[in-house]
Amino acid sequence: MILVNLKKITTGNRIMIKIFNLLLLSIFFHFLLNAQNAPGRSVEVDIGLFNSDCSSFEVRLKANENINSSLTNLQFTIKWPENSVELINFASDLNLEQQGPVFTSNSHNYAVFATVPTGSEPVNWLADEEYLVMSFEHDQSGNEAIDIVIAQDSWTGQNNGEYYLELLGSDYTGSVYHNASNVYTGVCIDIGLFNPVCAKLEVKLRPGADVDSYLSNIQFTVKWPAGTVSLINASSDFGIEQQGPVVTHENFNYAVYAAAPTSSGGINWNAGEEYRILSFEHDQTGSGNADFVIAQDAWSSQNNGMYYAELLGTDASGIVYHDATETYIGNCNETSLRVILQGAYDEGSGCMRNDINTAGSLPLTQPYNMAPWNYGGIESVQSLADSIVDWIIVELRDENDAGKLIDQRAALLSKNGIVLDTDFSEELRFETSAGNYYLVVKHRNHVPVMSGNTCLTSQYHRSLRLHRDCHYSTLSA
Description:
By secondary structure, the protein is mainly β. The protein has four helices and 39 strands. The strands form seven sheets. Strands 3, 5, 6, 7, 8, 10, 11, 12 and 14 form a nine-stranded antiparallel sheet that branches. Strands 17, 19, 20, 21, 22, 24, 25, 26 and 28 form a nine-stranded antiparallel sheet that branches. A hairpin with a 2-residue loop joins strand 25 (about 310) and strand 26. It is elongated, with a radius of gyration of 33 Å.
């Protein structure tokens, strides 16, 4: 405050005082304007932590004004209860890395993350848009709901762990605008929809950790294009049934499935393995291909059709990890086949031995996805009967050019030589029209063979013998 004694001011001095006061006002407003526009004051970047699905998390930044600059420093601390879960699988396009070990204080864990981008990472952020800077997961080893947050407390204040963001050397640090509260820490069960055989579809669950519990509730929605095919022959060991009729909305069909299993809901599943809970077929009345998916859209959200899995009353819903895209919806050609492996054949019994199976060395998924076969099919089963000898590949070749592959698939071979589909039926289904084809059979320990004549695949039964020690330039049955 400046005090002026007016009694001693002359007329000429009054002009100087007015100029001086105007100068003071100018300096004051200039200071006020600069204070409002200073980095970290009017332009700020807030930080949020989100539980994007059952066990996954995302750290996001959000500016309150448009920013076109370069990021030169970023740090923050994640805090969660001690003795709950471990945080794993960190990923960041900004090279955020954990600084030191996880620290424990006052019954909480603290993990500090920071980055100093070498090339001053350019950012062009729009106001109020969220930008992902890091993702991670928890290990699904808990049994309660916890809070996982961006820490702003006495520990972070004392240990240089406060949230801080710098653009070209200027502080643009905002506030924490979101935290992941009430996060489920137990097993997360993902769901997938598969097309293992031409007209067949399967819904499978895949736990993220070992689980020995009861599936007390399950629901999901299957979505596919309207005016294509109908779904038929649904079957489930968990009592899953379609809820109401198929609903058509915006050129798509929706079929909601649900169950509240009781005694049949007991599960003892291994982490990462797939377990079939529902199978069904389409009626082969379409043409071309169509996508069949587990719906996660506005319709399923508004009509109680979102995927939901419950273990003993606790929400264990994971993500949709697979959909049956590009599924052939036309008529599926079927063929029956009988094959004898010379190396496994027992003349005394007239059947083949199942030594690989009884030794526990026969995989549940087709084993031909490597050289020299390089077959990319996803055929699999949940279990193998004692009668199964091994997996084989069956191919259809063009009737006018036996070297031209039309279609192929993996199948199971039983002791009596009958070739079985993965649903253990005797018909193999191919995505091609019925007609005459050469049949080729391949086995990993035998030389491939091809039928001497073309076969009418829809009804012709062909018996082929695979020879282990014989090598022919032209192979025939």
